[in-house]
Write a structure and sequence with these properties.
Elements (H helix, E strand, L loop, with lengths): L1 H16 L4 H19 L5 H17 L3 H16 L4 H18 L8 H21 L4 H16 L9 H15 L7 H17 L3 H28 L8 H11 L2 H10 L8 H21 L25 H22 L3 H33 L4 H15 L11 H18 L19 H10 L80 H5 L5 H13 L1
InterPro entries: RRP1
Keywords: Nucleus, rRNA processing
Family: Belongs to the RRP1 family.
Length: about 550
């Protein structure tokens, strides 16, 4: 009965975890981690945990902002280190790794980094869980088998989810460093999946990752530690060289790699890698033996599992900031009241009220100004413009008057009113608004120019005082006019047209001359291919003609 109730509640929580509402997701995560998992973990089946992790996957998918992502990843991973029993921790970790491997191909490049972070956090908390139990062999074997079966060497080898195994191999040593040193027996259990990779895996990328990210780092740290010991330099306690170097020197990697290489089950392609590592470790171990340096075996010293605090009591970062500000204000008010400074509080309130009124007034003035600028010239706009112009004229500062278009139009209207009252004839001047003129087609322009003769002046565009919006492109090829010299030379000595621009750029007094229009080039028709018969009917050559003539004479 309890199992059925827990399963039903898990399904309801899953729906809330995948909600589009941030607040609903956050409340569901808090309820899951604080109340549901600690109480119902023994009653949840593997299927229920996979359902929960489907919702948690999409909850983390929707998480935005790096700080919130890091906080959520730490809280989710803390469920492993805070588990009551090794079985509960192993089941939760297994459900997480199975879900991530299944969904790995759907994670896009923009979200991959935050899932890398989540993967690191889970590995770290799995090692913290083992550290809290002093790396007991049975517990260590249980957690390591989950990592091996679900991430590094899964039973159903899915090519799309191999990236999870690559990442685990990459970050394994980085995440285990905080709980090191551990005994060599515990290290044997922890490294067991990676020895299996070298022996049985056909994935060359994974084999390369295991070699470079794990065993070569042990080799490098061991050689550094040995060099420092030979020179008599002190090694910093807790450094990477000390933690990994001791394992590299004392574990006996050369013998282990020899056994793997000699095994009949080892993949043939991996033997070269295995024997290469074996040779390197033999060299290192011989160097330690010849140097006479004594290095103590690493022993587990115990670690305290840190409590993972929810950022700002489980609230979003924005909510937390607002709550902080409220608390500060309340504390300030309480301090003022206790000190008997009620008058100061009243003064602060009055100051706030004055500021609010001032802001309201400024907003109203801005709105009025915008209305005046956007008005089309009605009576209401005239009155508002009059009021503003009077205010400007009555001001103390003479530079405050700005002669913009609205003020100029207002002055024009006032002048027209005064003239109408006095009975003076006034021609209203309307200011031209510069508009974009469409460029006339080149064919129309050329026809207008070619229509007029040398003496005709009707084709010259009338130029008024305003600047034309038309853009003129100068080209000496198309802007040639004939400027006749005075007096005209005789016909035989006529000069070619001079290079003078025409059109709207033509100076007043210069008449446009005749424009020579270039005729359109006529396309030559392609010569038709002669047929074979016509080629046979070709007229005979002169030699043939001569031969025929001789034949006729002989006959």
């Amino acid at each position: 009965m309890a199992a059925a109730a827990a399963s039903a509640e898990a399904a309801a929580i899953t729906r809330r975890l995948a909600s589009c509402n941030t607040g609903a997701r956050e409340r569901a995560v808090r309820h899951l981690l604080a109340d549901f998992l600690p109480a119902s973990a023994p009653h949840l089946s593997a299927t229920d945990l996979l359902k929960l992790w489907k919702g948690l996957f999409f909850c983390f998918w929707h998480a935005d902002k790096p700080l919130y992502q890091a906080d959520l990843a730490s809280r989710l991973a803390a469920a492993v280190s805070a588990a009551a029993t090794p079985a509960a921790a192993a089941d939760f970790l297994a459900a997480y790794l199975a879900t991530i491997r299944r969904e790995w191909s759907a994670i896009d490049v923009h979200r991959l980094d935050k899932f890398y972070l989540l993967n690191r956090r889970f590995l770290h908390h799995a090692f913290l869980f083992l550290g809290a139990r002093s790396f007991a062999p049975d517990v260590t074997a249980q957690i390591v088998s989950v990592i091996s079966e679900k991430a590094v060497l899964p039973e159903a080898d899915n090519a799309t989810g191999r990236g999870l195994g690559y990442h685990v191999a990459d970050v394994f040593l980085d995440e285990i460093l905080p709980v090191l040193p551990v005994s060599l027996q515990s290290m044997e259990l922890l490294l067991a999946p990676f020895f299996t990779v070298l022996e049985k895996s056909t994935d060359r990328v994974l084999v390369s990752k295991v070699r470079s990210s794990l065993f070569e780092r042990f080799l490098e740290s061991g050689s550094q530690l040995l060099e420092m010991a030979r020179k008599g330099e002190g090694v910093e306690k807790g450094s990477v060289e000390e933690k990994l170097g001791k394992v590299g020197l004392l574990f006996g990697f050369s013998k282990r790699f020899l056994d793997i290489g000699a095994s009949a089950e080892t993949v043939q392609g991996n033997r070269k890698v295995v024997f290469g590592l074996r040779d390197a470790f033999v060299k290192l171990e011989k160097g330690l033996e010849l140097s006479g340096v004594k290095i103590s075996e690493p022993e587990f010293q115990g670690t305290q599992v840190p409590m993972v605090a929810v950022v700002e009591n489980g609230m979003d970062l924005d909510e937390a900031k607002v709550e902080k500000k409220r608390k500060k204000k309340k504390a300030k008010k309480a301090a003022l009241v206790e000190g008997g400074e009620e008058e100061e509080i009243k003064a602060l309130k009055q100051e706030k009220k004055v500021k609010k009124d001032k802001n309201k007034k400024e907003k109203k003035e801005k709105k009025k100004k915008n209305k005046v600028e956007d008005s089309d010239g009605g009576d209401s706009s005239e009155q508002s413009i009059d009021a503003t112009s009077e205010d400007q004229q009555m001001g103390d500062d003479p530079d405050a008057i700005t002669f913009d278009e609205a003020l100029m139009s207002n002055l024009q209207k006032q002048f027209e009113k005064a003239a109408a009252e006095a009975g003076m004839p006034v021609t209203p001047v309307t200011a031209k608004v510069a508009k974009k003129r469409k460029r006339s087609k080149s064919s129309d322009r050329s026809s207008e120019v070619s229509g007029g003769g040398v003496g005709s002046e009707g084709n010259v565009p009338a130029q008024d005082g305003d600047k034309s919006g038309k853009k003129v492109r100068f080209s000496m090829k198309s802007n040639l006019v004939w400027n006749p010299p005075t007096p005209l030379p005789p016909q035989c000595l006529r000069l070619p047209p001079s290079a003078t621009p025409r059109g709207s750029a033509l100076k007043s007094g210069v008449r446009p001359g005749p424009i020579k229009e270039s005729s359109t080039p006529v396309k030559k028709a392609k010569a038709k291919a002669k047929s074979a018969k016509k080629m046979l009917k070709k007229s005979p050559s002169s030699a043939v003609k001569r031969l025929r003539k001789l034949q006729t004479f002989s006959a």
